[in-house]
Amino acid sequence: MLRIHVNTSSEYNVLLERGLLSTIDRYIDHDARKLCIVSDETVASLYGGKEHALYQALEKAGFQVFTYTFPAGEASKNIQTVTDLLQFLTGMQFTRKDRLIALGGGVTGDITGFTASIYMRGIGYYQIPTTLLAAVDSSIGGKTGVNLEAGKNLAGTFWQPKGVFFDPEVLQTLDQTQLLNGMAEIIKMGFICDKSLLYDAVHGGRNQHGPVIFQDADALMRLVAKAIQDKLSIVEQDERESGARALLNYGHTLGHAIEKCSGYQVPHGFAVATGMYYTARACDKVEWTNRPCADITEQTLRFFGYPLDCPYAAWQLAEAATNDKKSDGVNITLSVPEDLGKCVLRPLPAEQLVLFFECGLEMNNDDH
Ligand SMILES: NC(=O)c1ccc[n+]([C@@H]2O[C@H](COP(=O)([O-])OP(=O)(O)OC[C@H]3O[C@@H](n4cnc5c(N)ncnc54)[C@H](O)[C@@H]3O)[C@@H](O)[C@H]2O)c1
Ligand SMILES: [Zn+2]
Which parts of the chain are beta strand (E)? Predict the structure, then answer.
């Protein structure tokens, strides 16, 4: 078993092990009497039902186990789902000693964490991520939230879980797009602060021809552990995002703009990969990098099969990005590479963002 100790405002462990779902009762707080497994319908039918190992292990250990499910997808990440879950918990007479279990991807983790943070002014919850993205990113760091009509993640809290449990076997039912969504966040951690992770991601599988790491559960689990440690090293310095945590946005300013311009047709991880690539190009051009980073960024991302297409004009992207909540209207704080495996924060006046994007994209046009 891999165990990572988390040292934030509350302390807990991230545990990673194959088959962990069937032994999970050992790690749940036995002061709790009732547990509610929260998951979307897809994940519930794969891992969350009475016939599955998780439910059975918890019931056998003497917990009273409840399940709450909602339709899969980002559209469920709203206040109504939170209200319904709160009502379910009051109906089942959950007390502050009882616990929620988020079994699923980032949508489930965000809804469950947010609900846990406000139910009776806060009850404990556990994260059991079932997507690669949730394992390395959304289940780590204690950010919770739901979307409002005005935008994504606009209502939220910081509420650390009591534990995060990752069983890599759940990844077997994910498709390639979902795996690549998570891998983009792993590679991102490498570019931000961990060159060795990039090496492991590319060479960590059985050979160097294609991303075989997806077929090697143990190598993938070690890579996930590394990405989690890297994310935590930043979160532990700045739990509430007043500084260093913004480094985690590498590729996201441009990535969110690409997602938005595509009408959310481009999956998040693919948009972030493209965002990292063009950001690296722009940084090389304006000489913010100590040595060129764009080529190695491109090679690494293409190795995993990200297309890195950006058919939008710089002005369209800048317009989409300046509406983003990461901008204060005057300056945008960009997470940018200074070297391979090292990002830094740089404020940029909002009106210069279009020029910055042009630098990345212009080189693109020169190539053709
Ligand atoms: N809180 C944070 O710090 C943070 C960080 C990054 C992203 N997020 C949020 O995470 C969300 C995206 O997460 P996601 O990509 O995991 O989305 P998701 O939770 O919607 O999961 C993606 C899809 O995969 C399915 N699925 C989940 N696990 C599966 C499995 N093991 N096998 C088969 N199908 C499975 C789900 O049913 C869903 O349809 C966004 O809402 C984003 O805002 C939050
Ligand atoms: Zn992301």
Answer: 2-7, 11-16, 34-40, 64-70, 99-104, 124-129, 143-148, 151-158, 163-166, 331-339, 342-349
